[in-house]
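// run 5 | inverse folding | seed 20
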């Protein structure tokens, strides 16, 4: 059967994973490090959220030291010990994350002769350094909401990179995937609106009650207005998501349909659950526990969105 000329081949060279990605035969069990890296990139967002909702953001009031002339908490510190250890624990997690990135980079350099994978691994390491510096700026600006938001959004980008890296190393790229132009356009729109939804979420947080410290500045947005804008974007997101589902069901050939349908359904379910948590937390005065669940939901939505998006876009790169 000849394919409609309007179809894109993604990309034409794509064959079975091992043929398309010759390096796959060389990656062994050690590739788990890339899953571990992804896990820690996600976990640090949650622990950052715990710092914020417990009001521990200035538990270590300076940076890079925790207290004056001390890299670790000092007995002379006046801050609440619980806040100190929550903030310091989060700082320590950065080192664990950096270690995972270094091991992943070393593994890629030694065993995976693929430039794109090595570049992605290097970007993970550089991104973590950038995050450490941005974290420092956040502390030194007294937890300004703009730097808190930037800190979160950079994590979102790092999570995308870590997921791309992991999927490449695991050969989770499609074998022969043909995607219609309509589904491609809708996936791009979904990604754009999804990112904007998350961006608006950070503005809601920056205008809301959980600043990370009682003395921290806040955005001057009307909390009701910005929350509703954020929620309205979810409606738009769901609209595009349903359009994408229809496009996949009616416009794609079987292999593409089966693969993308499964991924987009998981995305739909996580988005609906996340929306529900969002509304409940809004109407119940943003209780701390729901803020953490909403953060977790935001990460899951983004992971599923990015996974769906790259499913048809991972190109084989020969060494
Ligand atoms: C798929 C849907 C949604 C996603 C991906 C999402 C994502 C986010 C993100 C990333 C944040 C910022 C978290 C942070 O900076 O720590 C946030 C905050 C917030 N979102 Fe959503 N959200 C969604 C739906 C909703 C809905 C429907 C509502 C209902 C009004 C809502 C209400 C809120 C509120 C009140 C905050 C501020 C929480 C705080 O003070 O920490 N969200 N959201």
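// decoded
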């Amino acid at each position: 059967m000849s394919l409609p000329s309007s179809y894109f081949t993604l990309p034409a060279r794509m064959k079975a994973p091992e043929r398309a990605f010759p390096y796959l035969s060389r990656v062994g069990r050690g590739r788990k490090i890339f899953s571990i890296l992804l896990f820690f990139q996600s976990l640090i967002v949650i622990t950052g959220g715990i710092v914020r909702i417990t009001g521990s953001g200035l538990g270590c009031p300076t940076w890079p030291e925790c207290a004056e002339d001390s890299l670790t908490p000092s007995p002379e510190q006046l801050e609440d010990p619980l806040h100190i250890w929550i903030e310091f624990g989060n700082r320590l997690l950065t080192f664990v994350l950096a270690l995972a990135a270094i091991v992943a980079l070393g593994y890629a350099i030694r065993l995976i002769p693929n430039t794109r994978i090595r570049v992605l691994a290097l970007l993970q390491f550089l991104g973590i350094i950038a995050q450490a510096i941005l974290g420092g700026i956040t502390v030194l600006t007294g937890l300004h909401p703009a730097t808190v938001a930037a800190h979160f959004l950079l994590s979102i980008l790092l999570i995308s990179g870590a997921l791309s890296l992991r999927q490449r190393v695991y050969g989770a790229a499609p074998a022969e995937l043909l995607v219609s132009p309509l589904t491609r356009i809708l996936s791009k729109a979904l990604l754009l609106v999804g990112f904007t939804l998350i961006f608006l979420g950070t503005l809601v947080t920056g205008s809301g009650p959980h600043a990370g410290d009682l003395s921290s500045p806040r955005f001057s947005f009307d909390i009701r207005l910005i929350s509703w804008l954020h929620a309205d974007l979810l409606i738009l997101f769901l609209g595009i998501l349903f359009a994408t589902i229809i496009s996949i069901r009616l416009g794609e050939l079987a292999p593409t349909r089966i693969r993308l349908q499964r991924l987009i359904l998981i995305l739909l379910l996580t988005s609906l659950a996340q929306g529900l948590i969002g509304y409940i937390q809004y109407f119940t005065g943003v209780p701390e526990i729901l803020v953490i669940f909403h953060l977790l939901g935001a990460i899951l939505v983004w992971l599923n969105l990015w996974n769906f998006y790259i499913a048809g876009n991972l190109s084989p790169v020969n060494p």
